[in-house]
Write a structure and sequence with these properties.
Layout lengths: L11 E5 L4 H10 L4 E6 L19 H6 L3 E5 L5 H12 L3 E4 L5 H4 L4 H5 L6 E6 L14 H8 L19 H24 L3 E6 H6 L8 H5 L16 E5 L5 E5 L3 H10 L3 H5 L6 H6 L1 H12 L4 H10 L4 E3 L3 H5 L2 H5 L3 E6 L3 E6 L23 H8 L4 H9 L5
Helix pairs in contact: 1-7
């Protein structure tokens, strides 16, 4: 394989992952320069290869997540297939799995068994509740993580049923924390020679995002509820409608900023309104204030208004849509997007790593793999199998 460079150059990761959380962790490590090998099979596909109504090598969810990943096919339901997986793990530094609780143990791929093969192995198991405890047997998807963590109950407008989120933060957040833990374990191994087992709970990861609200009841006696954009010490504080169905987010922290906001909006009546004369008044009348502010902001272009407000010292930014982000020149100049190439989709943009590394950034230029695209590399080069051995395994559907 080509030399991609990067701080994790020379590190090999084996993935037994599906959907998003595990593959997201692998992608981040690949974006740091690691060689990441995803174990797959035709008889047990990653669900992401099936989403989108297209063939398994062009499914949009799969190709959006798995850049710079290598794919090798093996049927893990056969003894020979499991032996091949163990040989791959023996050549790896990190193993990531997010498959069903108990599956690794039933397959003889638990950490204690794998340490006999690779004593300094780092194994990261991503599960909904972690690998033990009374609910360690439960499986779930990102909406479950968010609901069980307490985050869903806090997302929504004041007085409404909790809305939750339509972005699967549970997957990407758990995946990012898994990648961080793997890097920390690599550092530990560098200094001690010891591998580690990382038991990552997606629910606990999401609970950590709740922040101080987790302990609010013990301090205030009130259980936090969804409250939209409310802020106890800033008002106005929210997203306000602008021309063309766009929105601008505004946060006013003091009286000077409040006066400046009214001046930019050419709204002297608002500035003089006794209901809004100070913070306590604006907070007490925030719903009326939001409605009146919206009547002024909707006359303006969102980006232009935000710039005028910032120039006047008022924190404000356009609330960017996905289309706004994809066409943002600054993000392109920052290389937030990278152009990658794969077999079915040609050259296309992807969301690249959010960091800039100097002086040895890894290459990010290859898109998602075809199923089994790297069989020859893994079986012939890494495991040393001969061509007739590989053909025999294919014929008997051990390589499936």
């Amino acid at each position: 394989m080509r030399d991609r460079g990067g701080p994790l150059k020379g590190i090999r990761v084996v993935e037994l992952t599906k959907v998003w959380a595990g593959p997201y962790a692998g992608k981040l490590l690949a974006h740091l320069g690691a060689e990441v090998i995803k174990i797959e099979s035709m008889s047990n596909l990653d669900e992401m290869r099936a989403y989108g109504g297209v063939d398994i090598n062009s499914a949009p969810y799969f190709v959006s997540i798995n850049q710079e990943i290598l794919s090798v096919q093996v049927n893990m339901k056969t003894p020979e297939g499991l032996d091949l997986v163990k040989r791959m793990i023996a050549s790896a530094d990190i193993l990531i799995d997010n498959i069903r609780p108990g599956a690794m143990e039933r397959s003889g791929l638990d950490y204690e068994s794998l340490k006999a093969i690779k004593p300094d192995l780092i194994q990261c198991a991503i599960k909904m509740w972690g690998s033990d405890g009374p609910l360690g047997y439960q499986t779930g998807y990102a909406p479950c993580f968010a609901a069980l963590s307490g985050l869903t109950a806090m997302v929504g407008h004041e007085g409404e049923t909790p809305k939750g989120m339509n972005i699967r933060y549970g997957d990407s957040t758990a995946g990012a924390c898994a990648a961080l833990a793997c890097v920390a374990a690599l550092h530990h191994r560098e200094s001690s020679g010891e591998g580690q087992f990382i038991d990552l709970s997606a629910v606990e990861t999401m609970t950590s995002l709740v922040g101080d609200s987790l302990f609010a009841w013990s301090v205030t006696g009130k259980v936090p509820e969804a409250d939209g954009n409310y802020h106890p010490e800033m008002c106005p504080h929210g997203a306000y409608p602008c021309a063309g169905d766009a929105w601008t987010s505004i946060a006013v922290a003091n009286e000077a900023e409040w006066q400046d906001l009214c001046a930019v909006l050419e709204a002297p009546a608002l500035a003089a309104d006794p209901r809004f004369a100070d913070l306590s008044g604006r907070l007490a009348n925030r719903l009326a204030l939001d409605a009146e502010l919206g009547a002024f902001t909707q006359r303006h272009d969102a980006a232009v208004l935000a710039e005028k407000l910032r120039n006047s010292g008022v924190p404000a930014f356009k609330s960017m849509s996905s289309l706004d982000l994809c066409t943002d020149a600054f993000l392109w100049e920052r290389e937030a997007y990278r152009m990658v190439t794969d077999h079915r989709n040609g050259t296309r943009p992807i969301i690249g790593p959010s960091w800039r590394i100097s002086p040895d950034p890894p290459l990010v230029e290859r898109g998602a793999p075809l199923l089994g695209e790297h069989n020859a590399y893994v079986y012939a080069e890494l495991l040393g199998l001969q061509e007739d051995e590989i053909n025999d395994l294919i014929a008997r559907k051990v390589i499936d």
